[in-house]
Design a protein that fits this description.
heterodimer; A: mainly alpha; two-stranded antiparallel ribbon; 20 helices; 2 strands; 3% strand; B: alpha/beta; disordered C terminus
Amino acid sequence: MRLKMVDWRGIRGTTALLRHTLRTERVRFFVWVLSFFVLMSVVTYVNGQFTAQEMKELVIHSTGEPGMRMLVSPITAEGAGEISRFVFFRFSFVFSLLVVLMNIQIANRLTRHEEETRRADLIATSGAGRYARLLSALLVLVGLNFAVALAMWGGLLINGIEPFGSLIAGLSYGALGVVFAALTACAAQLSSHVSGVAAISGFTFAGVFLINSLAGARGTVEGEIVNDTLHFQGFEASSLAYLSPMGWTQEIYPFDDRNLWIFLLFAAAFIVLTSAAFALVDKRDVGAGVLRERKGRERSGPISLRPLGLALRLDRGVMLGWLFGTMFMAFVFGAAVGDLGVAFEDHAVFGEVFTEAAEQFPFMLISVFAMAVPFYARAAVLRMRREEATGPLELGLSTTLSKARWLTSKVLMLIAFSFLCLFAATLSLGFAMEASLGEIGEFLAAAAFQGGAAFVLTGLFLVFLALVPRQTGALSLAVIILSIAVGSWFGPMLDLPQRVMDFSPFSHVAFEPENAEPLRIALLYGFGMTACAIGITGFLRRDFQPSR
Amino acid sequence: MEPIIHAQELQKFYGKTHALKGLYLAVKPGEVFGLIGPNGAGKTTTVRILLGLLKASGGTAEIFGMDAWQDAATIHKRLAYVPDDVRLWGNLTGGEVIDFLLNLRGGIDEKRRSHYIDCFDFDPAKRCRAYSKGNRQKVALIAALASKAELLVLDEPTGGLDPLMARRFQETIQEIKNEGRTVLLSSHRLADVERLCDRVAIISQGTIVESGDLKTMRHMKRNVIRVRTRDPLDGLQKLNGVHDVIHTDDEVSFQADNEELEAIYSFLAARGILSLISSPPTLEDLFMRHYETRQESTGAAEDG
């Protein structure tokens, strides 16, 4: 039998492409790696201020409620009072989310984006082999994830955490990232558009996230009560965790068991996904995806003949995604709160503590929904900016569609939809919890109050769009991150002075409506409206600014 | 007759860049008016001010006697525009976009719509993101031509069209002209302008350097002469009104000022003309002359 020889011509030019990517993307990569280092060191340092006893109490408080268990990572009994485990117990979700988002974004950029802008054609015709672009993109991403792993390692090391465990911890997130890079590379072979690739990878991640959350909620918490003192015996996720790469990361226990064999799971997933991606390269033309673009309608329906109808139709997919996505997440959390029961609830002292935590939990979730709203608002404002910068707005405004009508319909749609999402998620949470009408009313009030804080940010984004259109993306992201970081969730955790926390609109809204100050809420809404007004008038007065 | 487009002393600053320096433009009803000039001369800026997308830093821009910025939406009821770089809604089909634009421009005329779709051999069922540059241009062109707009503003409308489609475009502009509609055509394709436009303005560095109808513009200029004679043409360069003499194998070509033609022809006739072709200057010659002076002046400025 003759073995088919590998055709090395297919990867010719890989090193040249690799160098080119590292050159053009160096700033972006540097910022990501640096961010992981800073995040890891700051989070570890801040949480290191807790005493071992405080850490243990926090672990007990946040594992008692099944809904709360969805957002924390498993931890051992010995680990509960140790900063090394505690940091990952609390922030594993945040780290995983950031690593995965980075990989989806960059992998999409290096593969499908490159083809959609037709730059790939230039490369394909300049002597580079058929697989060279994909191979160089994957190599770059593996390198980037390794750098991120080392950056996290460094962040732990400077806090004096045990070196070998820290290295494994860093690598476990790098491995998660590599899997999602390969998944996105696969998606880039299937769909012929950046948005399609983002949707495939994004939905897969949402599924992975969900499975992992369920594994947490269905996990087991053990404790022993001796002389009115609770001895925490550890929190383990259910075996569902093995179905989710996020779960693999959490099952490694870098400071305890060191389940290094789990890296084999990551490696297997990576190999399967990359082989699939390379196999798919052969099945398609450069620039096209494996999935064919279907033909559409020749004539417009009556709704999309009108500007508002068209706007609805264009954003339909994104809007439905957000609406059902948030409602679904809310439902899952709500169901977990109601169904699975609270650990230690029989015990007099701790039962009370946990019941109290369980009562506050829905309101904390509602504030999380409100913090998601600015992300939608930012994306919507950026879509408006794109429509102006590189999109069809120029053509649209040359018709009887006036600037004022275009802008006001977009802004009204954005604000109305933000609140719709927030209230729908809140209702979904309430129904899943089988809450009483009175409770649901309270939830809705909480949502209306929290929504005020989100509304302020929406107004600010519109001001950016009007006054500094080219910087809208960066500025709005900075504003979101700062408001959440110094807001009511992380502000107290970071021990920030009240004056600093007051910069975040979220600090002005108490979780429970009964504790909220009506004047502050009114001021938030007033501020938001003023910002919207400034943004709208500013936009109407300024020149149309395309990006060329 | 009141001009349909009337711009006076038009100024535009982008920060410190002075893009338009007192531009004057008057387009009369029913004419096809060509706006030509090198890249960066201010064509697109002028067009965008006229559409109310940009606010003039100084001067006035009026269409149908209304202010281009203030009354943009009212003006746009009677106007259709084709941008130089047509960007569309990626997930709509070409047919849907055409319907949308036509509806905003006063309603869909089914006959005209299908006429122009056939005319440009266009497939309206594909999604816009899958269209080539030329096909995106067709979307905007069809939506403009099939509308009832009195004024068409076309910014480089044939940039992505193949020669056959560019020819179709020329024919349709003739139809539009016969319907009595007005066209402002900004273009690099001088053949289009030469063939279609009643009047032309050459824009350079933010001002109109020359304008008028092509015949008068040509009249003032030089003819291009290619001649073969029995005897050598020694001394031709020294004649008044003769420029740029080029000797090739068996032919001599040069430019001749129109007012000196008589003397030049007698000189040639005395040397036994075997063949002679005299052609009026093309728009390209006119354009190149302005372009060259522009380059010389900027070159000189840099040297000084």
